[in-house]
Amino acid sequence: MYPIFLVLLAGAVGWKVFQLTRAPKDRALRSVTLCLAFAGLQVPLATPGGASGMDMVAGHGAAKLGQNLLLLGTMYFLMCFYLYSASDQQASRKRARIEALVVLCVAAVITVAATTVPHEAFAGSFATADMTITQLAVFYGVAGLYLMYALAAAGVWTVRYARMSPRPHATGLWITAVGLLAMAVACAVRAVFVAVRWEGGVVPHSVMATVAMLLVVSIILFVAGVSYSAARSRLAAFRLWQEHRRGYRRLAPLWELLASRFPEIVLNGSSSRLEEWGLRGVHRRYHRRVVECRDGLVRISPYLGELEAEELMHVGPDLLAGRLRAAYQGPASEAAQPVVALAVPQQDDRSSDAAHLFALSDALRTAA
What we know:
Layout: H1 2-22, H2 27-41, H3 43-46, H4 48-58, H5 62-85, H6 89-115, H7 134-164, H8 169-198, H9 205-250, H10 252-261, H11 273-276, H12 279-300, H13 309-314, H14 317-329, H15 350-367
């Protein structure tokens, strides 16, 4: 699960940073970006190699303290995201300043607790720490209670937004809400563990391992929920890109026949190969080819024989493909018949228009 978490987190941070470059004054977007960035910064401190390196440089226990301080920052900016998303901006800024004072107080308390305890006390993890030492109990207990408060508040706000939002945004918000509330529950249970162990009680390791797994799964759900809407929109954009790329190639037989007979239908446009096959370039090339095919069909319509205009508009693709080839091989003299639109769809929309062109181009390919 750890590699999956890293991939999701890196993708979420990268996407939010990209969005922030387009809207640098958006406070809500800035808050969620900082929230994910703080979450990413604490990942190296959570690994054994990163924690030992930090402890060697800054002293034993520095990695654990730094990880918890970054976690507090993550939760604070998460709350700021919801505050700045509200309509009352003045009240949101005031509440954000109050929450900043609260998180600074919590950070000061756990910092004092961490620096006044012997360094050896931080040698173990949460499961192996000696909670009978008051400073350790304060360190884990106060941080856990603040995390529970922040996560629960964020989870409730997320549920409210999910109920008001349409899909697919609502789906991502519901996933985020489940992750936040599950993290809040895990933090609450861990706070109970701290109280029990501070009084000398014993909590089974299997129970603590289950809560730790719940915390990991809830974090993955949170990151997946935050990234859901963006990932879904990017996937839809990629599918449309593939569809237009295939459509561009599928129209090649029809376009080549018409463009060779009437070179003037080819619209001018020059760009680099990277730009042409980029996300926007493919859409531009596809729509330009559709327009050029339509223009070419109108230009070649007077050369298709003695069919009436109404018959030409609704003739089948196989028959029309044969007449197009005959007209292409015939003389290029001026025709007496009027121009008429060919392969006209019954429904006036882009998909139906393209479907008729595809059928005609496929017929040309089959005949060839």
